[in-house]
Design a protein that fits this description.
Layout (H helix, E strand, L loop, with lengths): L7 E5 L6 H10 L3 E6 L6 H7 L5 E2 L12 E4 L8 H9 L3 E3 H10 L3 E6 L4 H14 L5 E3 L11 E2 L5 E6 L3 E3 L2 E4 L8 E4 L13 H13 L6 E5 L3 H7 L6 E5 L6 E3 L4 E3 L2 E7 L5 E6 L4 H16 L4 H9 L9 E6 L2 E6 L4 H14 L5 E5 L12 H5 L7 E4 L16 H10 L4 E3 L3 H11 L5 E5 L7 H9 L3
Helix pairs in contact: 5-8, 5-9, 8-9, 13-14
Length: 471
C-alpha cells in the first residue's frame, strides 16, 4: 500500500552530518519530521532548530509514538539500538540515509556525484557553487558547509543535484557504500586510496566498491576521473560511458599548461582542454589538490553547457568549506587554521597548501589520529611522509586506542621520535590539554597554528584562538 503524503518521518541519530541536512530537506518538502539523538550542539543543533525540528534526547521506543510512516536510520546506529529494535518489531518501513536521499530527492534529477578517498566535500561544494553562480539552481547535499553558500543542503529547482558520494556503509542493515544508492548521471572520481579499514578488510575490497559505483553510470553519462592516479584509471576502465581524464600530467584529456601557482588570493592556473583551448583561471582557495578538484568541476560544468567565463568567475569567488583550511582566528601575528584532514595523503597535501598560502611562516601542527583508520599502525609510513613542511608537530593520543589491539595501534611516540630525528620537531602529548598548552607555549608572532582532526578535537582550534585573543 502506498504511503500517505506528507509523511510522518522519524530519523534515528538525526544529528549526523548527512542526517541533519536530510531532515531539513524533508521538512522543507512538507513532511512532518522528528527524530532522536544524543545531546546535540552547533552546528547541527542550530541547523535543525532553524528548520523547526526539535529532536528527542536519547533513544527510546517511546519516541516512535505515535507510530511514524517511515523511519530513516543513520549509519552510526547499531542493530541493538532500542529504537532500531522497536522498528523491526513493529514492522515500520525503514530506509538508510542514502536510500532516503535517493528516494525523495534524486529520482527526477541528474545526480552529479563526487566520490574518492580525498576531496569529496570540497569538490562537491565547488560544484554546487559553480552551478549556483551560473544560474542553474542546483540541489545539493555535501558533508560540510560551503562558505559562499552558507548551507550544506538545498533542494534547488534545476535538473542537477550535487551529492557527496561517501564510500562508508549506509546502515547496519544496508552494508554497502552510501554512494551505491545515488544513481550518478555524472561522476567525479578524485582519488582511490585505501581507507576505512574498519569496513574494508583490504584495498581490493575498497576497489571493488568503486568499480560497482562506476558500473552504475548510464551509457549516456560521464565519468570525470583523475588520470594521475593508476588506481583511478583502473577503476575507470570499467565504465560503460565516456571518460574524461584530468590532472597535472599532459597525457590527461584536460590538464594544466604549467604547474598551478599560489598567490595571495588563491591558486592561478591555465587549463588546457581536450580540443587545445586554453583558459586562465583563478581559484579562491590554495593547494595543487584543489586546483585538480577545480579541473574536475570545470569538465562537468563545460559538458553541461556552462560558459567558460561564468565558471571561471565562480571558481574565483569560491572560498572553500568550513573546516577545510578554515581561518579560525588571528591575534598577535599568530594565525589559527582548522582542517579535517586525517588520512596521510590528505594531511600532506593540506600542509603543502598551507605552506604555499603562508609562505615563510612556521606551521605548528596539532594532529589527532581520530578515526579508526587514522589510528592504525598501517599508516605509520604514510604519516612519516606527511609532515615534512611542518615546523613542529604535536600529536594527540589515538582517539580509538582502546578499540585497537596494541599491534594494530599507531605508535605515536615512535612516530614523533622518527620525525624529530628527520628534522621535524615532534612531540607525543598525553592529552589534548597538553597539545593546547604546548602549542601556545611554542607559538611566536608569524607562526600558524594548524589543528587537524576528523572529529571535534575538543574544540581545540577555537580554544587556541580564544587564548590568543587580546583581553
Amino acid at each position: 500500500m502506498p504511503l500517505p503524503v506528507p509523511l510522518d518521518i522519524h530519523l534515528i541519530a538525526i544529528g549526523g552530518t548527512g542526517m541533519a541536512p536530510l531532515a531539513c530537506l524533508l521538512a522543507a518538502d512538507g513532511h512532518r519530521v522528528r527524530g532522536s539523538d544524543g545531546p546535540l550542539y552547533p552546528p547541527m543543533s542550530t541547523l535543525l532548530e532553524a528548520a523547526g525540528i526539535r529532536p528527542a534526547v536519547g533513544f527510546s521506543p517511546a519516541h516512535l509514538e505515535p507510530r511514524p510512516d517511515l523511519v530513516v536510520v543513520g549509519n552510526a546506529v547499531r542493530r541493538d539500538n532500542p529504537e532500531s529494535v522497536e522498528v523491526e518489531r513493529l514492522g515500520i518501513p525503514r530506509l538508510s540515509m542514502p536510500e532516503a536521499l535517493a528516494r525523495f530527492f534524486l529520482a527526477d534529477r541528474r545526480p552529479l556525484v563526487v566520490a574518492g578517498t580525498h576531496g569529496k566535500t570540497t569538490t562537491a561544494a565547488m560544484a554546487a557553487c559553480v552551478w549556483s553562480r551560473c544560474g542553474r539552481d542546483p540541489g545539493f547535499l555535501v558533508g560540510g558547509v560551503p562558505i559562499d553558500l552558507g548551507t550544506s543542503f538545498r533542494r534547488g529547482g534545476g535538473d542537477r543535484f550535487v551529492v557527496e558520494g561517501d564510500e562508508y556503509n549506509a546502515a547496519w542493515f544496508d552494508r554497502g557504500a552510501k554512494f551505491l544508492h545515488y544513481r550518478p548521471e555524472t561522476l567525479l572520481l578524485t582519488s582511490v586510496e585505501y581507507d576505512h579499514a574498519d569496513l574494508y578488510p583490504d584495498p581490493a575490497s575498497l576497489l571493488a566498491a568503486y568499480r560497482q559505483l562506476v558500473g552504475l553510470l548510464p551509457a549516456g553519462g560521464l565519468l570525470v576521473a583523475c588520470g594521475d592516479s593508476p588506481a583511478v584509471r583502473e577503476v575507470a576502465s570499467h565504465a560503460a560511458c565516456p571518460v574524461v581524464f584530468y590532472g597535472e600530467a599532459a597525457d590527461n584529456d584536460v590538464h594544466f599548461a604549467s604547474p598551478p601557482a599560489a598567490g595571495p588570493d588563491g591558486v592561478r592556473m591555465e587549463i588546457v582542454e581536450a580540443d587545445g583551448a586554453r583558459h586562465r583561471v583563478r581559484l579562491g582557495v590554495w593547494g595543487a589538490h584543489n586546483a585538480g578538484n577545480a579541473l574536475a568541476v570545470w569538465i562537468a560544468a563545460r559538458r553541461d553547457g556552462l560558459p567558460p567565463e561564468g565558471i571561471a568567475a565562480a571558481l574565483a569567488a569560491f572560498h572553500g568549506v568550513r573546516r577545510r583550511q578554515e581561518l579560525v582566528g588571528e591575534a598577535g601575528g599568530i594565525t589559527v587554521v582548522d582542517d579535517f584532514a586525517h588520512h596521510p595523503t590528505a594531511v600532506g597535501k593540506t600542509l603543502e597548501a598551507l605552506a604555499s598560502r603562508f609562505a615563510g611562516r612556521r606551521l605548528i601542527v596539532c594532529f589527532e589520529p581520530r578515526s579508526l583508520t587514522a589510528g592504525r599502525a598501517f599508516f605509520l609510513d604514510g604519516y612519516r611522509a606527511a609532515f615534512p613542511v611542518a615546523g613542529v608537530v604535536l600529536f594527540a593520543p589515538v582517539f580509538h586506542r582502546d578499540r585497537l589491539a596494541p599491534e594494530d595501534r599507531l605508535d605515536v611516540a615512535a612516530l614523533a621520535a622518527e620525525l624529530t630525528a628527520a628534522g621535524v620537531p615532534a612531540e607525543a602529548c598525553p592529552d589534548i590539554d597538553t597539545v593546547a598548552s604546548r602549542a601556545l607555549a611554542l607559538a611566536r608572532p608569524g607562526d600558524v597554528l594548524v589543528t587537524m582532526s576528523s572529529g571535534s578535537f575538543s574544540g581545540l582550534a577555537a580554544r587556541l584562538a580564544a587564548a590568543l585573543a587580546p583581553g
